[in-house]
């Protein structure tokens, strides 16, 4: 059901990407930059469907603390990505570079799908809480209730960087500035991927061990995600657009840094106000209450 949901979402995104040049021009981007963007993103459309398979596979494994298959499959895909990228870029140019991205992701999906299919046929040994076919309808309903706020939170965070790119296109030296910005953000993504991987592993480990089947915890996560989404709405756009565009690309980066600092301060204040003893007591009460009730089977969100 998750894969079907993501595939359905790719339909409007596909139409959006096919008209991205008109959208960019409407927002004041240069004609040549908009044309190049449409060329690249048009050949990247297959990656939408590949990602719709990749994300559920990766989450399915990581939720069970199984991360080595994802690491090895990504390493194999990376080994293929370099020669594929070189060959396609020389033969097809920008279109080839775009195609190399989804071909690499497709390799990861194929390897993970093979791994999951093999283990699904082996009953008992590896899976802690059953496979895909053992999940109930209620599990998927809980997933759908949570995915909206989670997706909104993630989108708002990444849109801050995309807005930065759009604003860069309005500068006088847009081509040079976009080139500089692309290189800088790519290095930033490399560093961010390390932190994101660590955060994902830690959060997954904690959620699997502490009260993963509590109704109160699930409700709290849903409400907190909405709060974080609101924080992101007012955080980065205000800082980036806050009257510093006259400094050019450097000014945009200053605004981005200001937004990150504001977000960090808000989170620190929020964490400092938490009474951990009270929260631990609430968690213990929830655990006691849950033990007195009928266990919720296969409650994984």
UniProtKB/TrEMBL annotation:
| Chain segments annotated as transmembrane | 68-88, 100-119, 179-204, 225-245, 251-272
- UniProt cross-references to InterPro entries, sorted A to Z: MATE_fam
GO: which molecular function terms? antiporter activity; xenobiotic transmembrane transporter activity
**A Pfam family:** MatE
Can you tell me which family this protein belongs to? Belongs to the multi antimicrobial extrusion (MATE) (TC 2.A.66.1) family.
Which superkingdom is the protein from? Eukaryota
Does the record bear Transmembrane in its keywords? yes
From the Swiss-Prot or TrEMBL record, give the protein name: Protein DETOXIFICATION
Q: Has UniProt tagged this entry with the keyword tRNA-binding?
A: no
Looking at the UniProt record for this protein, which Gene Ontology cellular component terms does it annotate, in alphabetical order? membrane
Listed A to Z, the keywords are: Membrane, Transmembrane, Transmembrane helix
């Amino acid at each position: 059901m998750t894969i079907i949901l993501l595939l359905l979402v790719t339909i409007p995104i596909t139409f959006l990407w096919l008209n991205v040049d008109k959208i960019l021009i409407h927002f004041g981007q240069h004609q040549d930059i908009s044309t190049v963007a449409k060329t690249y993103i048009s050949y990247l459309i297959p990656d939408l469907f590949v990602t719709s398979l990749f994300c559920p596979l990766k989450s399915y494994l990581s939720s069970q603390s199984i991360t080595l298959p994802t690491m090895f499959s990504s390493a194999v895909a990376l080994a293929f990505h370099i020669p594929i990228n070189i060959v396609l870029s020389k033969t097809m140019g920008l279109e080839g570079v775009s195609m190399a991205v989804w071909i690499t992701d497709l390799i990861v999906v194929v390897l993970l799908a093979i791994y999951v299919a093999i283990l699904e046929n082996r009953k008992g040994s590896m899976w802690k809480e059953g496979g895909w076919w053992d999940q109930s309808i209620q599990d998927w309903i809980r997933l759908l209730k949570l995915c909206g706020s989670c997706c909104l939170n993630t989108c708002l965070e990444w849109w801050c960087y995309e807005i930065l790119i759009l604003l860069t296109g309005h500068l006088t030296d847009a081509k040079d500035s976009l080139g500089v910005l692309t290189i800088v953000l790519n290095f930033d993504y490399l560093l961010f991927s390390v932190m994101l991987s660590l955060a994902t592993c830690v959060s997954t480990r904690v959620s699997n061990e502490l009260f993963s089947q509590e109704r109160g915890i699930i409700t709290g996560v849903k409400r907190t995600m909405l709060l974080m989404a609101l924080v992101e709405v007012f955080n980065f756009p205000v800082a980036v657009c806050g009257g510093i565009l006259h400094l050019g690309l450097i000014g945009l980066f200053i605004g981005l840094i200001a937004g990150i600092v504001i977000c960090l301060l808000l989170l620190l204040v929020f964490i400092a106000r938490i009474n951990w003893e009270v929260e631990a007591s609430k968690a213990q009460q929830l655990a006691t209450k849950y033990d007195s009730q009928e266990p919720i089977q296969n409650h994984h969100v």
